[in-house]
Specification:
- The protein is of the alpha+beta class and 370 residues long.
- It folds into 2 domains: 122 residues, Phosphorylase Kinase, domain 1 (2-Layer Sandwich), CATH 3.30.200.20; 228 residues, Aminoglycoside 3'-phosphotransferase, Chain: A, domain 2 (Alpha-Beta Complex), CATH 3.90.1200.10.
- It has 12 helices and 11 strands.
- Strands 1-2-3-4-6-5 form a 6-stranded antiparallel beta sheet, with helices on both faces.
- It is globular.
- The N terminus is likely disordered.
Amino acid sequence: MSAPEGGRGPVAAGADPDPRLREVRSEDALDAAALGSWLTAQLPDLNAEIPEIRQFSGGASNLTYLLSFPTSGRELVLRRPPRGARSGAAHNMAREYRVQHRLGPVFPYVPTVVALCEDESVLGAPFYVMERVPGVVCGLPVPPEIGTTPEALDALGEAFISVLAQLHSVDVDAAGLADLGRGPGYVARQVAQWSDRFVKARTWNVPSFKGVMRWLEENQPDDVGTCLIHNDFRLDNMVFDRSAPLSVNAVLDWEMATVGDPLMDLGGALAYWIQDNDPFLLRRFARQPTHLPGAPRREDIIARYGDLTGRPMDGIAFYEVFGIFRLAAIIQQIYHRYSTGATTNPAFKHFWLMVRACHAEARKRISWAG
């Protein structure tokens, strides 16, 4: 759930129109001089220029910054883990860098990475930088370039599911990413791992999810296939072209990408696909315009994915429930960091309410599944 980056091409920092940009929060501050020195060693064309730094808002996992170099007009995006984050794949900058570096030649929607720093003495944590992708990110409010007409929202849904299907068709061997996988049993591993993560991160003000975890354990299917999966596929992790706003320029936030079951990826994406008839709390935390009139329904997305991939969708209920539970665990991990003082970002203060809403939704979907 990291901050998206998008916007126009190279411009001076103060003139950038992207509403997601803001001044860097004090607890997320970077040493601009140290960063500029390191970057110049990697990219001599920057001519030792110290970057102007701003932060993309909305990130709940890794932190994302815009680095502007007014003299050259160049812009880069920097990614680093938040302070107090536990180690793991989601905060492994070298892994995230490598995935994008290897995927770029075979998948056209990957930002170009330019440098990786694993020396924590530079900024206090590993980080990497990549080229900024021009365009707009379709979060809330919806950018005017995209609009909210039923036709635009329907086309967004088509672009969304089409790119996901394309990702799931990537040859992981050709991309050099087969080593991300651990073999058969992906579904079982994910159920066990996310159950363990939730239990460890649980706070007193959220449900135990014992019934949901038990249902997932008892109803898990075998893997339906193996492919490259994004694991955080959302509309607001996509950059759309400004001049052709329903054309995709990039998919962002590859921190949790791996090799696994494609329907687990679809289930994770559906957890974010909030509709206008979903409970108030879910709609209150919506991050993308899927609840607006004219947006495709979840059943439309499921059917279209089945058409594009040829995969049967009759067992999708399990993946939907898992997606909701996994989302609850992700949010709970972030809230746990806030509750222990590891982060003071006020945006996380009420995340426990979203966890409760996910619990109610997961139980409802289980009752529907019978």
